[in-house]
Design brief:
With about 475 residues, the chain is an alpha/beta fold. The protein folds into 2 domains: about 170 residues, Alpha-Beta Complex (Aspartate Aminotransferase, domain 1); about 250 residues, Type I PLP-dependent aspartate aminotransferase-like (Major domain) (Aspartate Aminotransferase, domain 2), CATH 3.40.640.10. It has 17 helices and 14 strands. The strands form 5 sheets. The protein has a 5-stranded mixed β-sheet, sandwiched between helices. A 3-stranded antiparallel β-sheet has the order 9-12-11. α14 crosses α16. The radius of gyration is 22 Å and the shape is globular. It starts with about 25 loop residues before the first helix and ends with a strand. The relative contact order is 0.16. The site of ligand PM9 has 16 residues, from α4 and α5.
Length: about 475
């Protein structure tokens, strides 16, 4: 008798649903009007006109009952709230940074650190750019230089750590401009714009050694650091038996400081912070925060927000939770591949990135294929996604032309603990249907362009 095939054992989310929020289904005719009124920009849609909202995982996560219970313990004193001290303890415990200042969200921390570390004319090398990070570096007078490995610019390259910095590119820059002109090396993990791709611990060690040799500061955008830690555990030799908390702490030990948008890993709706082991930087940051955010013991946040963040830190390192989050994204990617939809590989941590260049081959980049595709998916089903291509990249300050990025992507981003597998199936079927009818799709022209971070507010018309 042939041996029986073992029964497949599936995974499931380590939580059950206690509160539900109704969502609205609309007709195609309704959506045609809504997207036209929004200038074919999904950021300008009203949320109530969206069926499944995969715009971002930023501030859109479902908090736990423990976090909500903590909100009632908010100490709303102007100064010295007990929630601040609890959060400070957890920043020390999990990120290993002795000093910290809260901020209202990530870009506020980016603003402060850029103003402190950058002198006009400096350079900031990084593993690909993030929109708000780069803007604050540029506003402080720096030139951003991309030193990510070449594989990151290739959507189908299967390198397991496409978020790595290429040490040779970094050395070349140091040789060219001199170490003194490098304000700091800015390392993010996983790399959002590359498709949620992680860096390896080995690469971090190498970059740290290089920075140490040249006395260059190394700073961390730790917004989704736990996802990076999960990939290290899954893919890098020697980390299989370590906990997410241990890997996170080891990662942070290589950096002088870090900034965070707490709206992602930390499972809250608002918040951020800056943390460092450099006392001088801390002193300046805690002084600047009172100018731009609020007193250094609340930084633009309510006491209840800090309590939810402190509790969120404890939940974000739980293995089952992070695993369910990343496997949900993987499930979506694998279903899309079954329909032949082109996506960025390997599948990233927080989102599926559709390769709009391949998806809409007949639309040239100056007609915004990713922006077009994002609008088409909304039209098909009410699923909201985001452009991550030429619109997000903005213009070249020297030539004034669009920056024609290699990657022209649409991001389907998964809020943590919000959607079920059925929502993913509906999304996959919608994207597959747009793919089947792709040849009929026409591109867009930009009719309004704001000066900064144009992807948020630009408006388009159908060609
Ligand atoms: N990321 C995201 O959707 C929200 C704004 S852009 C659409 O991915 C990193 C790696 C981020 C990030 C925000 C910020 C800024 C910094 N670093 O949005 O200001 O992904 O809290 O954080 C968004 P804040």
């Amino acid at each position: 008798m042939a041996a029986k095939k073992p029964i497949k054992r599936s995974w499931a989310e380590p939580f059950k649903i206690k509160v539900v929020e109704p969502i609205k289904m609309t007709t195609r005719a309704y959506r045609e009007q809504a997207i036209e009124e929004a200038g074919y920009n999904t950021f300008l849609l009203r949320s109530e006109d969206v069926y499944i909202d995969l715009l971002t995982d930023s501030g859109t996560n479902a908090m736990s009952d423990r976090q909500w219970a903590g909100m009632m313990l908010g100490d709303e004193a102007y100064a010295g709230s007990r929630n601040f001290y609890y959060l400070e303890d957890n920043v020390r415990k999990y990120y290993g940074m002795p000093h910290f200042v809260p901020t209202h969200q990530g870009r506020a921390a980016e603003h402060i650190i850029s103003r402190i570390l950058i002198k006009p004319g400096d350079f900031v090398p990084g593993n690909m750019y993030f929109t708000t990070t780069k803007l604050h570096q540029e506003l402080a007078g720096a030139t951003f230089v991309d030193v990510i490995v070449d594989e990151a610019h290739d959507p189908v390259n299967a390198h397991p750590f496409k978020g790595n910095i290429d040490p040779q590119k970094l050395e070349d820059l140091i040789k060219k401009v001199g170490a003194k002109k490098i304000a700091y090396v800015s390392m993010a993990g996983p790399v959002n714009m590359a498709g949620g791709q992680p860096f390896s611990m080995n690469n971090l060690r190498e970059v740290h050694a290089l920075c140490k040799k040249h006395k260059i500061r190394l700073w961390f955008d730790a917004t989704r650091a736990c996802e990076n830690a999960f990939f290290i555990k899954e893919r890098e030799k020697g980390y299989q038996d370590k906990t997410i908390a241990q890997i996170l702490k080891e990662m942070c030990s290589h950096f002088e400081g870090l900034w965070i948008s707490a709206k992602k890993d930390l499972l809250v709706n608002i918040g951020g912070f800056l943390a460092t082991r450099d006392e001088k930087v801390y002193e300046e940051a805690s002084n600047m925060v009172v100018v731009y955010e609020g007193l250094h013991t609340y930084g633009g946040l309510a006491g209840r927000d800090m309590e939810a963040m402190a509790r969120g830190i404890e939940e974000m390192v739980e293995y089952d939770g992070i695993r369910a989050r990343i496997k949900q994204v993987e499930y979506c990617g694998k279903q899309l591949e079954k329909y032949g939809v082109p996506i960025v590989k390997p599948i990233g941590g927080h989102a599926i990135f559709l390769d709009a260049r391949k998806f809409l081959k007949h639309i040239p980049q100056n007609q915004f294929p990713a922006q077009t595709l994002s609008a088409e998916i909304y039209l098909d089903s009410g699923v909201r996604s985001m452009e991550r291509g030429v619109v997000s990249a903005g213009r070249d300050p020297e030539t004034g032309d669009h920056k024609y990025t290699e990657l022209e992507l649409v991001r389907l981003t998964f809020p943590r603990r919000v959607y079920t597998q059925a929502h993913i199936d509906v999304t996959v079927e919608s994207v597959a249907s747009v793919h089947e009818n792709r040849k009929k799709v026409r591109g867009l022209k930009m009719v309004y362009e704001p000066k900064y971070l144009r992807f948020f507010q630009a408006r388009f018309e159908k060609l």
